[in-house]
């Protein structure tokens, strides 16, 4: 908001006040000094003038008063002539008094009645004794200043009369008053001119400043488009120039900052990790999209919320703990159904040696990673365990042979055959593992061929007929009448069928039935192998395709199982684009189904 500077707070007003005060003080000092000097001068001039006349008058009067006889008859008129000639000063009254104190003449016409009377003035009496008197008094009637003198007239060292003078000094003070008036009006005019000049002058100073202020306010609102006009090369001009440079640099910095901010926000948005930033108190001030997804919240919900609360750590961890957390931390957001693990890394925001300004938390979904890690550990444990069993068995049999059983004609062949079986089992296990590792590797390729699937299936079952007869097992074939050609890797599917059918044989009782079915189902061909064996408990059904999973470990091992057969079968069926699943009732037999995409079916030709 642009605030107006009041006139009484403006620089203009301050300049005016300063100049007015300066002029007033200067005029005052000059005025006082000048009038005092002038007054002194005028008063001393007046005194001199009066003194001169009085001296002249006293001298002349002395001449007149010593006359005698006939000459004396014209005395009164002679004195009058003297008074008017010598003492024609305005506002002054002169009385001439003879040695007896009788007033002989006065220059003031209105006081003529005093002539011939005895003077009552004490000062006159003292003058007649021969003492001069001189003083400046204030006239009680008019209030004017009067110079009062009583001067004795002497002849031959004898006082023969006196002159009494009252000279008004009012004229001097009137003159002074006039001069003062002129001085005051001069001061006033000077002040008026100065104020006008200052107003104009101040504009040239404050104009650019006001301009810069306006520009600064605009910059505050992000408008850098305008420049301040530089009027002069003086300090203010330099200031305006620097201000323009500053505007330019600030604009540049703002643009760079905006660009950086955009970059940062784009990086944050497209990051695969979640990022959360807090202020120094641990309240969330920023959160990217990924963090919202990972935590299942929206930014607006958790803005200004406490980070440990949002991460579900509030029971055990304070924000200060997080400041010190240098290692990554695993946060478990798993529910009963889904596993969900996040790895959190914390970095404090801190300027060099300054206080902590906030915290950045980077969240990373490690559910899959953790699962792979657990699977791997489990796998290694399983493999070691699977290999250790036959190895320990072989070791104990070999030790027995070494201890002498080798010479026992009955035991030796049996022991050797056990070690041979265990070796075969290990070979099978290692082969299966190799198979799986090949299937896991990315560059694994299947070699597809068009195969008459009915023929293929019959061939596989034929190979089992001999063993089945030994176990008194009947294999029933329910194979579709329709010609069925499928694009498959022959070897791999042979292995799938081998695994499933051999399981059916292994887990079937003596004299059981095994049914192999082939039919067309929608866009697939579906193969199923059913037996009448002990079945698979419901809780185990989802697991039998996992690696090393066996329902009854001891039993499975006794029939030579590795726990990898169905896992391999699953991988291979999936590699063909099909599905595999199990249906089983505990104690009532098992059916393993698998499908192969029918889209590869080529019709009845060939
Ligand atoms: P194995 O080599 O031990 O047979 P598989 O992966 O082939 O390993 O089978 C996994 C487990 O599934 C077996 O150990 C067994 O417990 C169970 N199983 C598989 N097929 C059958 C079946 N036809 N009848 C009963 N149980 C079966």
What do you see in this structure?
By secondary structure, the chain is α+β, with helices and mostly antiparallel strands. The protein has helices at 11-65, 70-73, 75-86, 122-129, 170-220, 235-270, 289-295, 299-302, 307-310, 319-324, 367-402, 411-440, 453-470, 490-506, 538-541, 553-558, 565-575, and strands spanning 92-98, 103-106, 133-138, 145-155, 158-168, 274-278, 284-287, 329-332, 341-350, 356-365, 449-452, 474-479, 485-488, 513-521, 524-530, 580-584, 590-597. The protein has a five-stranded antiparallel beta sheet with strand order 2-1-5-4-3, with helices on both faces. A five-stranded antiparallel beta sheet has the order 7-6-10-9-8. A hairpin with a 5-residue loop joins strand 9 and strand 10 (356-365). The longest helix is centred in the first third of the chain and has 55 residues, at 11-65. Adenosine-5'-diphosphate binds at residues 499, 503-504, 507, 531, 533-534, 536, 544, 549-552, 556, 561-567, 590. The site of adenosine-5'-diphosphate has 22 residues, from helix 14 and helix 17.
Keywords for this structure?
606 residues, alpha+beta, five-stranded antiparallel beta sheet, 17 helices, binds adenosine-5'-diphosphate
């Amino acid at each position: 908001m642009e605030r107006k500077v009041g006139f009484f707070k403006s620089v203009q007003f301050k300049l005016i006040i300063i100049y007015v005060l300066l002029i007033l003080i200067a005029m005052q000092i000059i005025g006082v000094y000048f009038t005092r000097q002038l007054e002194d001068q005028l008063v001393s001039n007046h005194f001199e003038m009066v003194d001169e006349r009085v001296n002249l008058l006293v001298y002349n009067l002395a001449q007149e008063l010593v006359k005698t006889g006939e000459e004396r008859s014209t005395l009164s008129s002679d004195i009058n002539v003297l008074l008017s000639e010598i003492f024609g000063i305005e506002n002054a009254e002169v009385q001439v008094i003879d040695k007896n104190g009788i007033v002989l003449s006065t220059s003031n016409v209105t006081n003529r009645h005093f002539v011939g009377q005895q003077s009552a003035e004490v000062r006159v009496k003292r003058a007649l004794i021969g003492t001069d008197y001189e003083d400046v008094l204030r006239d009680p009637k008019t209030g004017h200043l009067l110079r009062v003198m009583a001067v004795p007239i002497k002849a031959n060292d004898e006082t023969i009369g006196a002159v009494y003078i009252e000279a008004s000094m009012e004229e001097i003070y009137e003159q002074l008053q006039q001069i003062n008036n002129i001085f005051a009006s001069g001061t006033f005019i000077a002040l008026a001119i100065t104020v006008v000049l200052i107003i104009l002058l101040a504009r040239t100073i404050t104009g650019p400043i006001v301009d810069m202020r306006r520009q600064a306010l605009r910059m505050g609102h992000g408008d850098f488009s305008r420049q301040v006009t530089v009027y002069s090369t003086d300090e203010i001009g330099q200031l305006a120039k620097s201000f323009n440079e500053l505007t330019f640099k600030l604009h540049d910095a703002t643009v760079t900052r905006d660009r950086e901010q955009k970059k940062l926000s784009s990086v944050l948005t497209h990051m695969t990790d979640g990022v959360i930033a807090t202020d120094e108190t641990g309240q969330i001030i920023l959160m990217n999209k990924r963090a919202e997804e990972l935590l299942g919240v929206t930014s607006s919900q958790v803005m200004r919320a406490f980070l440990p609360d949002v991460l579900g750590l509030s029971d055990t961890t304070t924000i200060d703990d997080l400041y010190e957390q240098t290692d990554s931390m695993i946060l478990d957001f798993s529910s009963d159904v889904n596993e969900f693990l996040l790895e959190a890394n914390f970095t404090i925001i801190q300027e060099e040696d300054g206080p902590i300004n906030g915290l950045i938390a980077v969240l990373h979904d490690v559910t899959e990673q953790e699962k792979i890690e657990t699977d791997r550990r489990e796998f290694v444990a399983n493999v070691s365990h699977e290999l250790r069993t036959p190895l320990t068995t072989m070791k104990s049999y070999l030790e027995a042979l070494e201890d002498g059983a080798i010479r026992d004609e009955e035991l030796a062949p049996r022991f050797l055959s056990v070690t041979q079986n265990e070796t075969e089992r290990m070979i099978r296990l290692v082969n299966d593992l190799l198979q799986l590792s090949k299937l896991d590797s990315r560059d694994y390729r299947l070699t597809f061929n068009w195969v008459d699937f009915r023929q293929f299936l019959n061939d596989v079952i034929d190979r089992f007929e001999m063993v089945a007869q030994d176990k008194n097992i009947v294999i029933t074939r329910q194979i579709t009448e329709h010609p069925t050609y499928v694009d498959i890797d022959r070897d791999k599917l042979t292995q799938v069928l081998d695994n499933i059918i051999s399981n059916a044989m292994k887990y079937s009782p003596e004299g059981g039935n095994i049914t192999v079915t082939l039919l067309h189902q929608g866009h697939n061909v579906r193969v199923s192998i059913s037996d009448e064996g002990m079945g698979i408990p419901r809780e185990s059904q989802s697991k039998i395709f996992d690696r090393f999973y066996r329902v009854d470990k001891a039993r499975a091992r006794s029939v030579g199982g590795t726990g990898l057969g169905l896992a391999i079968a699953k991988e291979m069926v999936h590699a063909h684009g099909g599905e595999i699943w199990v249906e089983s009732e505990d104690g009532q037999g098992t059916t393993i189904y698998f499908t192969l995409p029918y889209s590869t079916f080529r019709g009845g030709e060939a």
